[in-house]
Protein backbone atom coordinates (compact mmCIF):
# COMPACT_ATOMS: atom_id res chain seq x y z
CA UNK A 1 0.00 0.00 0.00
CA UNK A 2 1.61 3.25 -1.16
CA UNK A 3 1.12 6.23 1.16
CA UNK A 4 2.02 9.84 0.39
CA UNK A 5 2.18 12.38 3.21
CA UNK A 6 2.20 16.03 2.20
CA UNK A 7 4.12 18.13 4.74
CA UNK A 8 7.09 17.34 6.99
CA UNK A 9 6.00 19.24 10.06
CA UNK A 10 5.19 17.63 13.40
CA UNK A 11 1.94 16.14 12.09
CA UNK A 12 3.40 14.73 8.89
CA UNK A 13 6.49 13.22 10.49
CA UNK A 14 4.49 11.70 13.34
CA UNK A 15 2.11 10.23 10.77
CA UNK A 16 5.03 8.57 8.99
CA UNK A 17 6.32 7.10 12.25
CA UNK A 18 2.84 5.99 13.32
CA UNK A 19 2.17 4.24 10.00
CA UNK A 20 5.56 2.54 10.15
CA UNK A 21 4.86 1.40 13.72
CA UNK A 22 1.52 0.00 12.51
CA UNK A 23 3.25 -2.15 9.88
CA UNK A 24 3.16 -0.01 6.73
CA UNK A 25 6.36 0.31 4.73
CA UNK A 26 5.68 2.15 1.45
CA UNK A 27 5.57 5.64 2.95
CA UNK A 28 7.01 8.87 1.56
CA UNK A 29 6.81 12.40 2.97
CA UNK A 30 6.88 15.32 0.51
CA UNK A 31 7.81 18.77 1.82
CA UNK A 32 7.63 22.03 -0.14
CA UNK A 33 10.61 23.67 1.64
CA UNK A 34 13.96 23.11 -0.04
CA UNK A 35 15.50 22.29 3.33
CA UNK A 36 14.14 21.67 6.81
CA UNK A 37 15.49 23.91 9.55
CA UNK A 38 14.73 24.10 13.29
CA UNK A 39 12.37 27.08 13.08
CA UNK A 40 9.93 28.36 15.66
CA UNK A 41 9.86 28.70 19.41
CA UNK A 42 8.52 26.70 22.34
CA UNK A 43 5.51 24.39 22.26
CA UNK A 44 3.86 22.17 24.84
CA UNK A 45 3.19 18.48 24.38
CA UNK A 46 0.41 17.51 26.74
CA UNK A 47 0.24 14.07 28.43
CA UNK A 48 -2.13 12.58 25.84
CA UNK A 49 0.42 13.40 23.12
CA UNK A 50 3.41 12.34 25.23
CA UNK A 51 1.72 8.97 25.71
CA UNK A 52 1.71 8.52 21.92
CA UNK A 53 5.33 9.66 21.64
CA UNK A 54 6.25 7.06 24.24
CA UNK A 55 4.37 4.34 22.36
CA UNK A 56 6.39 5.24 19.28
CA UNK A 57 9.53 4.59 21.33
CA UNK A 58 10.60 8.25 21.45
CA UNK A 59 9.85 9.20 25.05
CA UNK A 60 13.39 9.48 26.39
CA UNK A 61 14.71 11.13 23.23
CA UNK A 62 12.07 13.84 23.27
CA UNK A 63 12.18 14.39 27.04
CA UNK A 64 15.89 15.19 26.76
CA UNK A 65 15.04 18.07 24.41
CA UNK A 66 13.13 20.21 26.90
CA UNK A 67 11.55 20.61 30.31
CA UNK A 68 8.76 18.95 32.28
CA UNK A 69 6.51 21.58 33.88
CA UNK A 70 4.83 20.59 37.14
CA UNK A 71 2.42 23.51 37.50
CA UNK A 72 0.23 25.74 35.33
CA UNK A 73 -0.81 29.04 36.92
CA UNK A 74 -2.97 31.94 35.72
CA UNK A 75 -2.59 35.54 36.90
CA UNK A 76 -4.12 38.94 36.26
CA UNK A 77 -2.13 41.94 35.02
CA UNK A 78 -1.09 42.75 38.58
CA UNK A 79 0.46 39.33 39.12
CA UNK A 80 -2.34 38.13 41.42
CA UNK A 81 -2.95 34.41 41.12
CA UNK A 82 -6.31 33.33 39.69
CA UNK A 83 -5.87 29.59 39.36
CA UNK A 84 -3.10 27.03 39.75
CA UNK A 85 -3.05 23.32 39.06
CA UNK A 86 -0.49 20.51 38.84
CA UNK A 87 0.51 19.24 35.42
CA UNK A 88 1.93 16.06 33.98
CA UNK A 89 3.14 13.45 36.46
CA UNK A 90 2.38 15.84 39.33
CA UNK A 91 -1.30 15.75 38.29
CA UNK A 92 -1.53 11.97 38.35
CA UNK A 93 -0.93 11.25 34.69
CA UNK A 94 1.22 8.28 33.72
CA UNK A 95 3.07 10.57 31.29
CA UNK A 96 4.63 14.01 31.75
CA UNK A 97 3.87 17.25 29.99
CA UNK A 98 6.84 18.36 27.90
CA UNK A 99 7.84 21.90 26.96
CA UNK A 100 10.22 21.84 24.00
CA UNK A 101 11.52 24.01 21.20
CA UNK A 102 9.34 23.27 18.17
CA UNK A 103 12.26 23.22 15.76
CA UNK A 104 14.35 20.86 17.89
CA UNK A 105 11.38 18.51 18.23
CA UNK A 106 10.75 18.56 14.48
CA UNK A 107 14.42 17.82 13.76
CA UNK A 108 14.34 14.90 16.19
CA UNK A 109 11.26 13.47 14.47
CA UNK A 110 12.96 13.97 11.09
CA UNK A 111 16.04 12.08 12.29
CA UNK A 112 13.95 9.16 13.53
CA UNK A 113 11.93 9.00 10.30
CA UNK A 114 15.16 8.73 8.33
CA UNK A 115 16.53 6.11 10.73
CA UNK A 116 13.42 3.92 10.52
CA UNK A 117 12.04 4.56 7.05
CA UNK A 118 15.23 5.32 5.15
CA UNK A 119 17.28 8.36 4.17
CA UNK A 120 15.02 9.20 1.21
CA UNK A 121 11.72 8.89 3.11
CA UNK A 122 11.43 12.69 3.32
CA UNK A 123 11.70 14.49 -0.01
CA UNK A 124 12.12 18.24 0.16
CA UNK A 125 11.52 20.80 -2.57
CA UNK A 126 8.16 19.30 -3.56
CA UNK A 127 5.17 21.67 -3.68
CA UNK A 128 1.78 20.01 -4.11
CA UNK A 129 -0.06 21.47 -7.10
CA UNK A 130 -2.88 18.98 -7.63
CA UNK A 131 -4.45 15.61 -6.87
CA UNK A 132 -6.50 13.48 -9.24
CA UNK A 133 -7.43 9.80 -9.42
CA UNK A 134 -4.97 8.79 -6.72
CA UNK A 135 -2.05 10.74 -8.21
CA UNK A 136 -0.40 13.65 -6.41
CA UNK A 137 1.37 16.19 -8.60
CA UNK A 138 4.30 18.16 -7.21
CA UNK A 139 6.23 21.08 -8.60
CA UNK A 140 9.99 20.75 -8.14
CA UNK A 141 13.07 22.62 -9.33
CA UNK A 142 13.51 19.93 -11.99
CA UNK A 143 9.91 20.09 -13.18
CA UNK A 144 6.61 18.49 -12.28
CA UNK A 145 6.59 15.07 -10.60
CA UNK A 146 3.57 12.75 -10.40
CA UNK A 147 3.28 10.19 -7.61
CA UNK A 148 0.62 7.47 -7.52
CA UNK A 149 -0.65 6.48 -4.08
CA UNK A 150 -3.32 4.41 -2.40
CA UNK A 151 -3.60 7.10 0.29
CA UNK A 152 -2.67 10.80 0.29
CA UNK A 153 -2.53 12.57 3.66
CA UNK A 154 -2.52 16.37 3.79
CA UNK A 155 -0.44 17.39 6.80
CA UNK A 156 0.67 20.64 5.22
CA UNK A 157 -0.49 23.15 7.79
CA UNK A 158 -2.94 26.02 8.00
CA UNK A 159 -2.23 27.00 4.36
CA UNK A 160 -2.73 23.40 3.20
CA UNK A 161 -2.57 22.91 -0.56
CA UNK A 162 -4.61 19.70 -0.29
CA UNK A 163 -7.36 21.45 1.67
CA UNK A 164 -7.38 24.30 -0.85
CA UNK A 165 -7.61 21.77 -3.69
CA UNK A 166 -10.91 20.50 -2.28
CA UNK A 167 -12.10 23.90 -0.96
CA UNK A 168 -10.79 26.44 -3.48
CA UNK A 169 -13.07 29.25 -2.28
CA UNK A 170 -12.27 29.08 1.41
CA UNK A 171 -9.92 32.04 1.45
CA UNK A 172 -7.34 33.12 4.02
CA UNK A 173 -7.25 32.06 7.66
CA UNK A 174 -9.46 34.08 10.03
CA UNK A 175 -7.70 36.66 12.21
CA UNK A 176 -9.25 37.47 15.58
CA UNK A 177 -7.49 40.83 16.01
CA UNK A 178 -4.76 39.57 18.33
CA UNK A 179 -1.09 39.68 17.45
CA UNK A 180 1.40 37.30 19.07
CA UNK A 181 5.09 37.95 19.58
CA UNK A 182 7.11 34.87 20.42
CA UNK A 183 10.70 34.37 21.44
CA UNK A 184 13.10 32.48 23.67
CA UNK A 185 15.22 34.18 26.31
CA UNK A 186 18.29 33.15 28.27
CA UNK A 187 17.04 34.13 31.69
CA UNK A 188 16.82 32.88 35.27
CA UNK A 189 13.83 30.75 36.18
CA UNK A 190 10.83 32.15 38.04
CA UNK A 191 8.68 30.83 40.86
CA UNK A 192 9.76 27.20 41.43
CA UNK A 193 11.45 26.89 38.01
CA UNK A 194 8.89 24.35 36.77
CA UNK A 195 5.81 26.55 36.39
CA UNK A 196 4.11 27.61 33.18
CA UNK A 197 2.46 31.00 33.71
CA UNK A 198 -0.23 32.91 31.84
CA UNK A 199 -1.03 36.46 32.88
CA UNK A 200 -3.48 39.03 31.55
CA UNK A 201 -6.92 38.99 29.98
CA UNK A 202 -8.69 38.97 26.59
CA UNK A 203 -6.94 42.15 25.40
CA UNK A 204 -3.35 41.57 26.48
CA UNK A 205 -1.55 38.50 27.78
CA UNK A 206 1.83 37.02 28.55
CA UNK A 207 2.77 33.32 28.54
CA UNK A 208 6.13 32.09 29.84
CA UNK A 209 7.59 28.70 30.64
CA UNK A 210 10.99 26.98 30.69
CA UNK A 211 11.96 24.81 27.72
CA UNK A 212 15.43 23.93 28.99
CA UNK A 213 18.09 24.90 31.50
CA UNK A 214 18.16 28.71 31.67
CA UNK A 215 15.95 29.00 28.57
CA UNK A 216 12.47 30.56 28.82
CA UNK A 217 9.86 30.56 26.09
CA UNK A 218 7.84 33.76 26.08
CA UNK A 219 4.69 34.73 24.19
CA UNK A 220 3.18 38.24 24.30
CA UNK A 221 -0.28 39.04 22.93
CA UNK A 222 -2.09 42.30 22.27
CA UNK A 223 -5.39 43.14 20.59
CA UNK A 224 -5.86 46.28 18.54
CA UNK A 225 -5.40 48.03 15.18
CA UNK A 226 -1.99 48.54 13.71
CA UNK A 227 -0.71 45.05 14.40
CA UNK A 228 -0.14 42.10 12.07
CA UNK A 229 -2.93 40.97 9.79
CA UNK A 230 -3.77 37.42 8.73
CA UNK A 231 -1.36 37.47 5.80
CA UNK A 232 1.72 38.33 7.84
CA UNK A 233 5.00 36.52 7.32
CA UNK A 234 4.90 33.73 9.89
CA UNK A 235 8.61 33.91 10.68
CA UNK A 236 9.14 37.67 10.60
CA UNK A 237 11.50 39.01 13.22
CA UNK A 238 10.55 42.44 14.60
CA UNK A 239 12.11 45.11 16.76
CA UNK A 240 11.46 44.02 20.38
CA UNK A 241 11.36 47.56 21.78
CA UNK A 242 7.71 48.34 20.92
CA UNK A 243 6.64 44.97 22.32
CA UNK A 244 8.59 45.54 25.53
CA UNK A 245 6.96 48.96 25.91
CA UNK A 246 3.48 47.39 25.83
CA UNK A 247 4.39 45.52 29.02
CA UNK A 248 6.41 48.27 30.69
CA UNK A 249 4.44 48.17 33.94
CA UNK A 250 4.09 44.38 34.16
CA UNK A 251 6.55 43.87 37.00
CA UNK A 252 5.56 41.17 39.44
CA UNK A 253 7.39 40.25 42.66
CA UNK A 254 8.45 36.99 41.00
CA UNK A 255 8.96 38.11 37.36
CA UNK A 256 10.04 41.29 35.56
CA UNK A 257 8.11 40.92 32.30
CA UNK A 258 9.74 43.73 30.26
CA UNK A 259 13.16 42.47 31.30
CA UNK A 260 12.27 38.96 30.13
CA UNK A 261 10.97 40.19 26.78
CA UNK A 262 14.04 42.34 26.25
CA UNK A 263 16.28 39.32 26.87
CA UNK A 264 14.80 37.34 23.94
CA UNK A 265 17.28 36.46 21.18
CA UNK A 266 14.69 37.63 18.66
CA UNK A 267 10.98 38.34 18.61
CA UNK A 268 8.86 36.72 15.89
CA UNK A 269 5.47 38.20 15.04
CA UNK A 270 2.41 36.10 14.24
CA UNK A 271 -1.29 36.79 13.75
CA UNK A 272 -3.63 34.69 15.91
CA UNK A 273 -5.65 32.86 13.28
CA UNK A 274 -7.71 29.75 12.77
CA UNK A 275 -10.24 28.45 10.26
CA UNK A 276 -13.88 27.53 10.58
CA UNK A 277 -14.38 23.79 11.20
CA UNK A 278 -15.36 21.89 8.07
CA UNK A 279 -17.81 19.02 7.70
CA UNK A 280 -15.55 16.64 5.77
CA UNK A 281 -11.82 15.97 5.70
CA UNK A 282 -11.82 12.99 3.37
CA UNK A 283 -12.28 12.99 -0.41
CA UNK A 284 -11.72 9.64 -2.08
CA UNK A 285 -8.33 8.38 -0.97
CA UNK A 286 -7.21 11.74 0.46
CA UNK A 287 -7.64 13.10 3.97
CA UNK A 288 -6.41 15.94 6.17
CA UNK A 289 -4.54 15.96 9.45
CA UNK A 290 -3.30 18.47 12.04
CA UNK A 291 -3.49 22.17 11.15
CA UNK A 292 -4.57 21.29 7.62
CA UNK A 293 -7.73 19.77 9.12
CA UNK A 294 -8.39 21.86 12.23
CA UNK A 295 -6.17 24.93 12.77
CA UNK A 296 -6.94 26.40 16.17
CA UNK A 297 -5.96 29.28 18.43
CA UNK A 298 -3.13 28.31 20.79
CA UNK A 299 -5.31 28.68 23.91
CA UNK A 300 -4.78 25.56 25.94
CA UNK A 301 -1.49 24.66 24.20
CA UNK A 302 -3.08 21.88 22.14
CA UNK A 303 -2.17 22.33 18.47
CA UNK A 304 0.83 20.01 18.22
CA UNK A 305 -0.72 17.50 20.62
CA UNK A 306 -3.86 17.19 18.50
CA UNK A 307 -1.81 16.60 15.34
CA UNK A 308 -0.01 13.75 17.10
CA UNK A 309 -3.34 12.24 18.17
CA UNK A 310 -4.58 12.53 14.57
CA UNK A 311 -1.52 10.68 13.30
CA UNK A 312 -1.82 7.82 15.77
CA UNK A 313 -5.58 7.48 15.25
CA UNK A 314 -5.22 7.39 11.46
CA UNK A 315 -2.53 4.71 11.63
CA UNK A 316 -4.59 2.63 14.07
CA UNK A 317 -7.65 2.57 11.83
CA UNK A 318 -5.64 1.85 8.68
CA UNK A 319 -4.11 -1.14 10.46
CA UNK A 320 -7.43 -2.48 11.76
CA UNK A 321 -10.12 -1.59 9.18
CA UNK A 322 -10.64 -3.84 6.13
CA UNK A 323 -10.48 -1.04 3.53
CA UNK A 324 -8.96 2.40 3.15
CA UNK A 325 -12.43 3.93 2.83
CA UNK A 326 -13.58 2.36 6.11
CA UNK A 327 -10.35 3.36 7.84
CA UNK A 328 -10.69 6.99 6.76
CA UNK A 329 -14.33 7.02 7.83
CA UNK A 330 -13.43 5.71 11.29
CA UNK A 331 -10.53 8.15 11.60
CA UNK A 332 -12.71 11.11 10.73
CA UNK A 333 -15.52 9.93 13.02
CA UNK A 334 -13.05 9.76 15.91
CA UNK A 335 -11.18 12.98 15.29
CA UNK A 336 -13.34 15.51 13.43
CA UNK A 337 -16.06 16.03 16.09
CA UNK A 338 -13.46 16.14 18.85
CA UNK A 339 -11.28 18.73 17.14
CA UNK A 340 -14.28 20.79 16.03
CA UNK A 341 -15.33 21.10 19.67
CA UNK A 342 -11.77 22.10 20.58
CA UNK A 343 -11.51 24.77 17.86
CA UNK A 344 -14.74 26.33 19.10
CA UNK A 345 -13.68 26.07 22.75
CA UNK A 346 -10.42 27.85 21.96
CA UNK A 347 -12.37 30.67 20.32
CA UNK A 348 -13.99 31.12 23.74
CA UNK A 349 -10.51 31.30 25.32
CA UNK A 350 -10.46 27.64 26.39
CA UNK A 351 -9.09 27.28 29.94
CA UNK A 352 -7.74 30.83 29.75
CA UNK A 353 -11.26 32.20 30.19
CA UNK A 354 -10.49 32.30 33.93
CA UNK A 355 -8.32 35.35 33.21
CA UNK A 356 -11.12 36.97 31.21
CA UNK A 357 -13.62 36.38 34.01
CA UNK A 358 -11.26 37.74 36.64
CA UNK A 359 -10.70 40.92 34.63
CA UNK A 360 -14.38 41.40 33.80
CA UNK A 361 -15.46 40.96 37.41
CA UNK A 362 -12.52 42.66 39.14
CA UNK A 363 -10.58 44.87 36.66
CA UNK A 364 -8.68 46.56 39.48
CA UNK A 365 -7.68 43.32 41.18
CA UNK A 366 -9.03 41.38 44.12
CA UNK A 367 -8.27 40.48 47.71
CA UNK A 368 -8.99 36.79 47.11
CA UNK A 369 -9.91 35.16 43.84
CA UNK A 370 -12.81 33.25 45.42
CA UNK A 371 -14.46 36.59 46.12
CA UNK A 372 -14.58 36.99 42.33
CA UNK A 373 -14.85 33.47 40.91
CA UNK A 374 -16.15 30.62 43.08
CA UNK A 375 -13.77 27.64 43.33
CA UNK A 376 -16.40 25.38 41.75
CA UNK A 377 -16.50 27.59 38.66
CA UNK A 378 -12.72 27.57 38.34
CA UNK A 379 -12.62 23.80 38.66
CA UNK A 380 -15.41 23.36 36.14
CA UNK A 381 -13.55 25.45 33.54
CA UNK A 382 -10.30 23.51 34.00
CA UNK A 383 -11.99 20.10 34.02
CA UNK A 384 -14.28 20.91 31.11
CA UNK A 385 -11.37 21.87 28.89
CA UNK A 386 -9.46 18.69 29.70
CA UNK A 387 -12.53 16.67 28.79
CA UNK A 388 -12.99 18.52 25.49
CA UNK A 389 -9.31 18.14 24.61
CA UNK A 390 -9.17 14.47 25.64
CA UNK A 391 -6.79 14.55 28.57
CA UNK A 392 -8.76 14.01 31.76
CA UNK A 393 -6.24 12.09 33.88
CA UNK A 394 -8.34 9.03 34.72
CA UNK A 395 -9.76 8.67 31.21
CA UNK A 396 -6.36 9.05 29.54
CA UNK A 397 -4.63 6.68 31.94
CA UNK A 398 -7.26 3.98 31.34
CA UNK A 399 -7.83 4.46 27.59
CA UNK A 400 -6.88 1.58 25.31
CA UNK A 401 -3.66 1.94 23.34
CA UNK A 402 -3.65 3.27 19.78
CA UNK A 403 -0.90 0.81 18.88
CA UNK A 404 -2.55 -2.02 16.91
CA UNK A 405 -2.04 -5.41 18.53
CA UNK A 406 -2.79 -7.26 15.29
CA UNK A 407 -2.35 -5.82 11.82
CA UNK A 408 -5.61 -7.01 10.32
CA UNK A 409 -6.47 -3.97 8.25
CA UNK A 410 -5.53 -2.74 4.80
CA UNK A 411 -1.90 -3.87 4.79
CA UNK A 412 -0.99 -5.51 1.47
Commentary on this structure:
InterPro entries: FAD-bd, FAD-dep_Monooxygenase_BioMet, FAD/NAD-bd_sf. This protein is α/β, with parallel strands linked by helices and 412 residues long. The chain is built from twelve helices and 20 strands. It has helices spanning 10-21, 47-55, 59-63, 102-117, 161-166, 240-246, 257-262, 303-320, 324-347, 353-361, 375-389, 393-398; strands at 3-6, 27-30, 42-45, 71-75, 81-86, 98-101, 122-123, 127-132, 135-140, 143-148, 151-154, 174-186, 195-200, 204-212, 215-223, 236-238, 251-252, 255-256, 267-274, 286-288. An eight-stranded mixed beta sheet has the order 5-4-13-14-15-12-19-16. Strands 7-2-1-11-20 form a five-stranded parallel beta sheet. A three-stranded antiparallel beta sheet has the order 8-9-10. α1 (10-21) links the parallel β1 and β2 (27-30). α1 (10-21) runs parallel beside α4. It starts with a strand and ends in a 14-residue tail after the last helix. The model has no long low-confidence stretch (mean pLDDT 95).
Q: Which descriptors would you attach to this protein?
A:
412 residues; alpha/beta; eight-stranded mixed β-sheet; five-stranded parallel β-sheet; 12 helices; globular; oxidoreductase; monooxygenase; FAD/NAD-bd_sf; Flavin-dependent oxidoreductase; FAD-dep_Monooxygenase_BioMet
- Roughly what fraction of the amino acids lie in strands? 25-35%
What is the terminal separation in angstroms?
Answer: 6 Å
Number of helices: 12
Low-confidence stretches: none
Shape: globular
Mean pLDDT: 95
Tally of DSSP β-strands: 20
Question: Which class best fits the helix and strand makeup?
Answer: alpha/beta
Please state the CA-atom Rg, rounded to the nearest Å: 21 Å
Name the helicity range.
Answer: 25-40%
* Spatial order of the strands forming the largest sheet: 5-4-13-14-15-12-19-16
Amino acid sequence: MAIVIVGAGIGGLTTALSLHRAGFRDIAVYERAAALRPLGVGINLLPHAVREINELGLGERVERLGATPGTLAYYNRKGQQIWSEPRGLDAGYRWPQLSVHRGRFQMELLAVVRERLGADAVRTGHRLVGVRDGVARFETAAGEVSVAADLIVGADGIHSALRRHHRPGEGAPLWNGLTLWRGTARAPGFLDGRTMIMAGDAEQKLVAYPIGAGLINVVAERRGPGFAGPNADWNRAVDPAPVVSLFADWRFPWLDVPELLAAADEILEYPMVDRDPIDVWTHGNTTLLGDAAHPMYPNGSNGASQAILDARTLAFHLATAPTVRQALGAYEADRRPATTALVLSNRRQGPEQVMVLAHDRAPDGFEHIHDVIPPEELTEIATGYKKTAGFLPAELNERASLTPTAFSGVLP
